[in-house]
Amino acid sequence: MTSQGGRFLLLGSGEFEPWSAEAERFALSGAAGDGSVAILATACGREGDAVFERWNAMGLAHYASLGITAHALPVRNRADALDARAAALEDASMVFLSGGSPKYLAESIAGTPVWDGVQRLLERGGVFAGCSAGAMVAGATGMRFPFASGLGLLPTSAFGVHWDALSAWWIRWLRDLAPRRLPSTVRFIGVAENTAIASDGATWRVFGSGVVDMRRGHERLALRAGEAFPR
User: Which residues have a Cβ under 8 Å from the Cβ of 122 and sit 6 or more positions away?
Assistant: First the structure.
């Protein structure tokens, strides 16, 4: 994928919680497929089966509460992702990559049948959705830490997540340093907790309670719920 087009839903945190319903419905409206969501919890796969299954259960319960059909993909690691049978994405309207380690997620799925299925879903008009680690892997390839996990779906953007969690020392450090580590051709988008950006293929909008910090060169915008920004 080498275009900023396509349908996306990227959350700074708070997947499978009621606040995200509006953003999810916006992204899914008019999406290709049968209306269902495929949940990919691979980013937490190294944390053990109990954690993996808990995130899947949360996702299934969340979508059931919205009246949306969902299923969880059995992809805990790269061996699972290399099994083409795990890539049950042909009919889904959205694939949702939940949080965990962006590095582990990218290393597990890059160049596998699962990632091929994700790209086909996006190319045919489905939605790529991700929270935290799942959002970061959508960004540009070839970047330095902390953006090195990008798999290139949005090749001119890099994403920061949990961007208002200032109680965490690493966020305070990254807020100043990380955007300056990007080349001038790549814009930075920092998404606050319980906040999302979503695209219906034409327009990007902000949802949730926090602020989206967008920077490109000397330009810097603070965007809030209901606002749109350039593709």
Answer: 1, 6, 7, 128, 153
pLDDT tens series, the chain, 231 aa: 334 569 999 999 999 999 999 999 999 999 999 999 999 999 999 999 999 999 999 999 999 999 999 999 999 999 999 997 767 898 999 999 999 999 999 999 999 999 999 999 999 999 999 999 999 999 999 999 889 999 999 999 999 999 887 666 666 767 777 888 899 999 999 999 999 999 998 899 999 999 999 998 888 899 999 999 876
What the block records as the tokens of 62 is 């969340």
* Total domains present in the chain: 1
Q: What is the CATH number of the domain that holds 197?
A: 3.40.50.880
Residue 121 lies in a domain: yes
Within a domain: 183:
yes
Tell whether 45 is covered by a domain.
yes
What does the DSSP 8-state code read for residue 74? -
- The enclosing H or E element of 103 equals helix 102-109
CB 106 within 8 A of CB 130: no
Reported pTM: 0.94
